[in-house]
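Incident log, support desk, overnight shift.

02:14 A customer reports that sequence design results differ from what the structure should imply. Their input is reproduced verbatim below. On-call engineer (initials T.W.) acknowledged and began investigating.
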């Protein structure tokens, strides 16, 4: 039978990473190996003390029942304590914390909570596709916030037209940034707060990569900016910090009214995160100081492998201050999608085309560092021998 799908689904763009996975699987099915440098999924295991805690609490009867809609008190208090310890920000665990089934879920639900059909959300371009996807599911209209290299990939709010600014209800920000690797200061965030207050806009800041930083760089919280809690919330993920992508747990903190309304939406969609996962996450955060040194060193080594291997081939490799992606200009005159397709077909290496993150991502590709060092060496060798030398 031929059932008509809803307009909100038919109007969705194809999801970038699903498209890349299809490209990869087609090549694998044809019998060719693929080195996948496209997806931001840490290839380090969740630390053993967190796994052991999970095993311990699995036998506790209360974890087998429905959890509280907003999350267990233990985890919310731990999050509040961590915010004070890490960022110097006071968070009320009862009113200003909501536990999420991964931060991606909350980033969609904030649009469903605030955007009516035809209403405007400001979305960074290039940006994580889930922001625009959530707006589309709500029937909203995306207005782009261009992230330009000349502005260090931070929005220039003075270029947002007054008409759009006055109609916008929601604005997404993300620092350290995916895909560009750019970082933002408290002063940058204060610009965003000023713009949001002036135009009565809610700010949704995605801080998923705040803990994956290098050298002396320490990422600030959006909520550290003066007045930030008046206008916005901040999303965090356990996925990147603790290598827990498959566990599906995150949180949103900040403005109590916004938290309430996201919670109201979630109550009709899911029943919360498995209690044992919440307890293990609380244990992880309570015992956390920073991402283990050896993991950061491995990421840096991977960046340096790519820098040493690809720069002689004409690639401009900039090592970011945070995150585990390298945002690099397409090293020839092809479009980013054409280049990535050729790279996959000829060298068996999959990277992410910048166009997949929006029109302002054209001319760039994103390289993920979540493979073993040996695979990076193989990728460089294949790119050199099968892609460049043959040409």
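02:41 Re-run completed on a clean worker. Output:
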């Amino acid at each position: 039978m031929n059932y008509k799908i809803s307009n909100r689904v038919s109007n969705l763009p194809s999801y970038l990473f699903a498209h890349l996975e299809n490209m990869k699987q087609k090549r694998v099915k044809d019998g060719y190996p693929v080195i996948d440098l496209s997806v931001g999924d840490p290839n380090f295991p969740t630390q053993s003390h967190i796994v052991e805690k999970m095993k311990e609490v699995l036998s506790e009867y209360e974890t087998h029942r429905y959890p509280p809609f907003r999350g267990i008190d233990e985890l919310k208090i731990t999050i509040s304590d961590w915010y004070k310890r890490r960022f110097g920000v006071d968070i009320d665990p009862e009113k200003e914390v909501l536990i999420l089934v991964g931060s991606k879920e909350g980033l969609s639900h904030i649009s469903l909570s605030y955007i009516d059909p035809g209403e405007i959300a400001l979305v960074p371009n290039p940006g994580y596709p889930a922001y625009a996807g959530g707006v589309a599911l709500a029937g909203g209209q995306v207005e782009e916030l261009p992230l330009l290299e000349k502005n260090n990939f931070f929005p220039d709010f003075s270029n947002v037209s007054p008409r759009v600014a006055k109609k916008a209800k929601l604005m997404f920000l993300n620092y350290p940034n995916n895909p560009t690797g750019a970082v933002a200061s408290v002063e940058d965030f204060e610009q965003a707060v000023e713009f949001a207050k002036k135009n009565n806009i809610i700010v949704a800041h995605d801080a998923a990569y705040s803990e994956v930083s290098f050298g002396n760089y320490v990422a600030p919280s959006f909520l550290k900016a003066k007045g930030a809690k008046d206008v916005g919330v901040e999303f965090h993920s356990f996925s990147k910090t603790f290598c827990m992508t498959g566990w599906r747990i995150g949180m949103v903190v900040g403005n109590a009214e916004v938290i309430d309304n996201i919670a109201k939406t979630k109550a009709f969609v899911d029943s919360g995160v498995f209690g044992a996962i919440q307890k293990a996450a609380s244990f992880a955060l309570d015992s956390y100081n920073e991402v283990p040194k050896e993991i950061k060193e491995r990421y840096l080594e991977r960046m340096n492998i790519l820098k040493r291997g690809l720069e002689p081939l004409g690639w401009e490799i900039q090592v970011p201050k945070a995150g585990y992606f390298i945002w690099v200009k397409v090293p020839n005159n092809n479009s980013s999608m054409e280049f990535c397709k050729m790279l996959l077909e000829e060298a068996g290496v999959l990277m992410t085309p910048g166009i997949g993150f929006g029109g302002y991502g054209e001319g760039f590709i994103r390289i993920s560092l979540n493979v073993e060092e040996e695979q990076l060496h193989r990728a460089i060798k294949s790119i050199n021998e099968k892609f460049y030398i043959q040409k």
